[in-house]
Design a protein that fits this description.
This protein has three domains: 49-145, Rossmann fold (3-Layer(aba) Sandwich); 164-227, ATP-grasp fold, A domain (Dna Ligase, domain 1, 2-Layer Sandwich); 230-337, ATP-grasp fold, B domain (D-amino Acid Aminotransferase, Chain A, domain 1). The chain has helices at 9-12, 31-38, 60-71, 118-130, 139-146, 148-157, 174-180, 205-217, 275-287, 316-322, 326-337, 343-349, and strands at residues 49-54, 75-80, 84-87, 94-97, 101-102, 108-111, 134-135, 165-166, 186-190, 199-202, 222-226, 234-241, 244-252, 267-270, 292-300, 303-310. The chain starts with 8 loop residues before the first helix and ends with a helix. The chain is α+β, with helices and mostly antiparallel strands. The model has no long low-confidence stretch (mean pLDDT 91). Helix 3 (60-71) packs across helix 11. The chain binds adenosine-5'-diphosphate. Adenosine-5'-diphosphate binds at residues 163, 187, 189, 193-199, 225-228, 231, 235, 258-261, 296, 298, 307-308.
Length: 350
Amino acid sequence: MEYRMLLGREALNARFLVDPSQSFLQGDITDDRLDELYKSYMPDKTGLRIAVLASNPLLYSNKRLMEAGLARGHEMVFLNVEHSYMKLDTTEPEVRYRGGNVLNKFDAVIPRIKPAVTFYGCAMLRQFDTLGVYCQNSADAISKSRDKLYASQIFAKNDLHIPTTGFAKSPIDTKDLIRMVNGAPLILKLLESTQGKGVVLAETNKAAESVINAFKSLKTNILVQEFIKEANGSDIRCFVIDGKVVASIERRAGKGEFRSNLHMGGQASKIRIKPEERKLAVRAAKAMNLVVAGVDIIRSNRGPLLLEVNSSPGLEGIENATGLDIAHLMIRAIEKKLKFSLPAVEAVQE
Ligand code: ADP
């Protein structure tokens, strides 16, 4: 239109009418019909089939990965770990889903396995691996990263610095364990803690001793760790993809809290990390054999120390704080690994 116009109701009569009191006027429209209607807006299908193996399709990270894959023109399928099962057979191994659908045609799987289903999820991943499907993080790497003791042993062996950490079974050794990490205040960690839920600060030697012995009597394994006071309740999360730190944020604990986890009310902000921190993050992901990793680093008086390497790092906090499209980068890493190039699509998307 050459001139701006004001359209009144009369002019619209018998033309397009939007009646806000009505809804679903198209009836119960099928997914196929929707695909057909929106075809011109969607990128051409690439033929690459990628599964997100997780538990909750509504979780921010899972939704973003599905969106990012679709935006690249790939076929994305959400698989609930616990609805998948397997047939172990030398000649005809299979992955099946919900009552018998055979799922043998994927090119790649993005594992987003929650801690509660690590054992089963890793078994499913091994099965996909047997079928020749590329798994972005391997089952072996994920199970190693879920065991804080084993992971710390791998870090120390690979010359990656961690806070001094002790582990012992018998209550007879509790006092020495406390001395070993320079006494209270000290940190106690359940071996399978996530989101900071199993991490405790013991302020005095007496408190530390009774908590350690209480856990031991319950046959619960815990790590005893030197408290990095100078970190002032903050740590750094580096998101590593394929040997590169693609994003980093600083997480700051809420008032009166020493744990900086976002689930514990910590605040995230974009941060420029130092070269030695970048190097530590990349080496840590490599030592754990993780292609995608969330590496947590704490700043101490003796330099950066490695806290943890997470195999299913959340996307929400880091995407919101940095404005980066991390899900897209994860999909691109799969394309690169599968030597998949999309000249036509790329020209449109880049
Ligand atoms: P989780 O896997 O449960 O998140 P972490 O080991 O990452 O457990 O610890 C949770 C949070 O507690 C960290 O993000 C950090 O803020 C704080 N924290 C952990 N270990 C130490 C430590 N040794 N000294 C000081 N703060 C620590």
